[in-house]
Design goal:
With 449 residues, the protein is mainly beta. It has a domain of 59 residues. The chain is built from two helices and 21 strands. The protein has an eight-stranded mixed sheet with strand order 11-12-8-7-13-14-20-19, with no helix packed on it. A five-stranded mixed sheet has the order 1-2-3-4-5, covered by helices on one side. A hairpin with a 5-residue loop joins strand 11 and strand 12. The longest helix is centred in the first third of the chain and has 23 residues. The N and C termini lie far apart (144 Å).
Length: 449
């Protein structure tokens, strides 16, 4: 056998052995309940598999997850299929489909200078079974939308900035979620909107007298735990309590901007954060035994509300394969070619300056030549500076360098009283009246003397 043949044979043997090992060494985690509490992603390095079914449609799927590490970061590669059966109670708009993605998780995450809010453009976390967490919906109160229901709500096309965003686990809208609080994106991506249930809960295998395991990692690298923790003050294991509470009373409206009705949890704006109102901070996390982590809760925000660390770019929906169909990249219900902001959800297509670029992605919304981030009045083309910070644009401020929000101008000379140096001018009639008064007063004094 010549050298080339031996090399070729060795390559075949190596490939065959590698394939054999990958099959044999994959850990079957079908319906597994997690139990490990380590916050280090390297402790989960392995290859995992599972065989599961869509219970309503009688379709079978195979899960595939690989977790590796280079010492600084772990990489979790997944086809997005869960390790448990699903859709027994759901109403999915799209059939579940495998979508290969890879996520980068720092071995030692660190807090950022400021917290980062959740965004519809990124996955919030990836759980250890390879399924992504996507907490924000694209639905909101928008009664003027063509697809609005009888309550004025629309299931797609909304951005966080629109307000009254629907909570996927809210009182009225469930978005067809199944028994694991999950459903599908238009491309078939199965994703959780809250407590995944199957990964941590089992009264037989993992009783609630034991602190919950790590079930995944947030986009900033910090671990996500199930709901139970060991309370050091009482030495008891109990559920972590969210510091968000549902507001009481009635919402403003109903009108085109506000839905009216009672605060009932339909919208995320139905909740407010009360510092120290529960165990968890505004991001739904806390430090236990020196380790910060996010916790599953049985009330809003369900898993996390923001990130204390830096979000890794691998969690970007665009960079990681997206969650929306190719002809509607931002998921706002408008095809890319007809969308004036194809990468930013804006179903209303507002375009203040009429330049063909929607306000949601226009760097100069009012078209006055000043970019939004330096324009004191980004939606008023006639103003862009407010030198004295009084809320009045310099072009219309009668004292542009002296704060005078009320714009008082007693002598109507277009120069505000706060910065005028003029002595008020009296009318001739007023001067005559004053002179007469003074003369009369003088005559009176002479007469009396």
């Amino acid at each position: 056998m010549n050298t080339l043949s031996r090399c070729f044979l060795n390559q075949i043997i190596s490939v065959a052995f590698g394939l054999f090992c990958s099959v044999v060494l994959a850990v079957d985690i079908t319906d597994a309940v997690l139990s490990v509490q380590s916050s280090n992603c390297e402790d989960y390095v392995n290859t995992y598999s599972a065989d599961v079914s869509d219970l309503q449609n009688n379709n079978d799927y195979s899960m595939a997850v690989t977790i590796s590490s280079n010492g600084a970061k772990c990489t979790l590669s997944s086809n997005g299929i869960p390790n448990h059966n699903f859709n027994e109670t759901g109403n999915f708009a799209s059939a579940v489909a495998a979508n290969q993605r890879a996520f980068s998780i720092p071995v030692n995450p660190s807090p950022a200078n400021t917290v980062t809010p959740l965004a519809q453009s990124q996955w919030d976390a990836v759980l250890l079974n390879g399924v992504v967490l996507d907490l924000l919906s694209a639905g909101c109160y928008n009664p003027t939308a063509q697809n609005a229901d009888n309550n004025g709500n629309t299931a797609i096309g909304c951005s966080v900035a629109d307000g009254w965003l629907l909570d996927p686990l809210g009182a009225e809208y469930t978005f067809g979620a199944d028994e694991h609080n999950a459903h599908t994106q238009p491309d078939g991506t199965y994703h959780y909107h809250g407590d995944p249930v199957a990964l941590w809960r089992s009264d037989i295998l993992i009783p609630t007298t034991i602190a919950s395991p790590v079930i995944g990692f947030a986009a900033d690298g910090y671990p996500i735990y199930g709901p139970y923790f060991l309370d050091a003050d009482t030495s008891m294991v109990r559920r972590a309590l969210s510091s968000f509470v549902q507001k009481t009373g009635s919402r403003p409206g109903p009108d085109n901007n506000d839905p009216g009705g009672s605060y009932d949890g339909t919208y995320i704006d139905d909740y407010q954060y009360i510092e120290n109102g529960g165990d968890l901070d505004q991001c739904n996390g806390m430090v236990v035994n020196g380790q910060y982590g996010y916790y599953v809760t049985e009330s809003y925000p369900w898993v996390l509300n923001c990130f204390i660390g830096t979000v890794d770019s691998s969690f970007s929906k665009n960079g990681g394969g997206g969650g929306f169909p190719r002809n509607d990249r931002d998921g706002d219900g408008l095809r890319n070619l007809l969308d004036n902001c194809p990468d930013d959800a804006n179903s209303g297509q507002s375009d203040l300056d009429g330049n063909g670029e929607g306000d949601a992605c226009d760097a100069d919304i009012d078209g006055d030549g000043y970019l939004n981030d330096v324009d004191a009045f980004p939606i008023a083309s006639e103003e862009w500076l407010d030198s004295d910070g009084d809320g009045q644009g310099d072009n219309s401020d009668n004292c542009p360098l002296v704060a005078n929000a009320e714009q008082v101008d007693s002598d109507n000379d277009s120069i505000g009283d706060e910065c005028t140096t003029n002595i008020p001018v009296m009318s001739p009639l007023a001067i005559f009246a004053l002179a007469s008064l003074l003369i009369g007063f003088g005559v009176r004094r002479v007469y009396l003397s």
